[in-house]
Amino acid sequence: MYLSTIGRRDSGPVSRRKLAAVGANVLALGSVSLVTDISSEMVTAVLPIYLVLGLHLSPAVYGLVDGLYTGATALLRLVGGYLADRVRRRKTVAGIGYALSAVAKLGLLAAGSSTAAIGAVITLDRTGKGLRTAPRDALITLSAPESVLGRAFGVHRAMDSAGAFAGPLVALGVLGLVGSAAGTEGFNAVFFTSFCIACVGLLLLVLFVRDRQTPAPATGSVSLRAAFGLLRGSGVRRLLLAACVLGAATIGDGFVYLLLQRKEDIASGWFPLLAVGTNLMYLLLAAPLGVLADRVGRLPVVLGGYGALTVVYLLLAGPVSGWPLLVLSLALYGGFYAATDGVLMALAGPVLPESLRTTGIALIQTGQALSYFASSVLFGLAWQFWGAGTATVFAAGGTVLAVLITLVLLNSRKATS
After folding, report:
1. pTM for the full model?
2. DSSP class of residue 297?
3. Using CA atoms, how far apart are residues 153 and 266, in angstroms rounded to an integer?
4. What is the CATH number of domain 20-211+221-416?
5. What does the pLDDT look like over 58-88, one tens digit per residue?
6. What are phi and psi of 320, to 5 degrees?
């Protein structure tokens, strides 16, 4: 998709050289993420409508489940990151994470309508994601030159978002074949298909991704004391605090799509297409914004992404409705992800030592995920007790505040470009 954005006669050779610059290992990791995201987004696309409209969960309970989906196992990111640095087997640790998430798809088949069982299965799935995310991102930082890290993460996230774009469409196709009116049979078919696709992603990891072995660290350089010692660095502390602040400004995809569904009165059968719109924009913009981040600085791109998120919240809270609002909201929401997801990790890479690169990335991701967990729960409570409009206005104000705090925290750091 990045090839189509150049728009020059010699774009083919130039683009191939730019893709080659990020390395074959980044492309292999991107392929794994593409297939895995087809699997995970099949479930993500149907889960909000299944829980809220199917199982009739209240906004507060859904907020707890949604926060659990992303943040409850966040501390395992630290475990996965530290373990990967300690044994210097980042691919192995990531593979265990991918395998756990695949098994969790089968667990959804057995969970039925039990909220407790669904929560347990979601915890297992997020355990897998918590273990794999930091080792995977660390492999990217070790597989591409520092000067093109923004591009490397942009290419990876573009491939990742291609899978995220396809996942809801596959789920919609499965529901159509089985019959979306077939109740749990349709959802069970989605869950089983998701499991099969996840197994393909795991196979790609085993066959094509190479583990980047860093030199054996000096004695004591990879230890719990050294890991906690990362926080002694001003750059790491500021980045961690900024990640926490930005995580607290994010209410989560499920809430955004439920608000859109409620505002536009979208039929439940079309609900998965909301994620398709977001992921299409993410797919189109991830690589170009990664390149832009390398050129103009990563911090301005990240803050611009959160500015787009603020506009999304204001649109959801406002009185305007109709298809232009729907298209604009999804486009801005996809732009938010493209500008922030990989670029924030590219911002972190240069300030972290190689021997503790995975641990440091995991630390930052953990802070952001825990803040997101709190934000999701609080937003669910605000929606239930104050109404969706008031809750969304507060979310928009919180995002503006988060952007200002992040600007103060990171603007003085030399490593932001």
Report:
1. 0.68
2. -
3. 34
4. 1.20.1250.20
5. 777 777 777 766 665 666 777 777 777 777 7
6. -75, 140
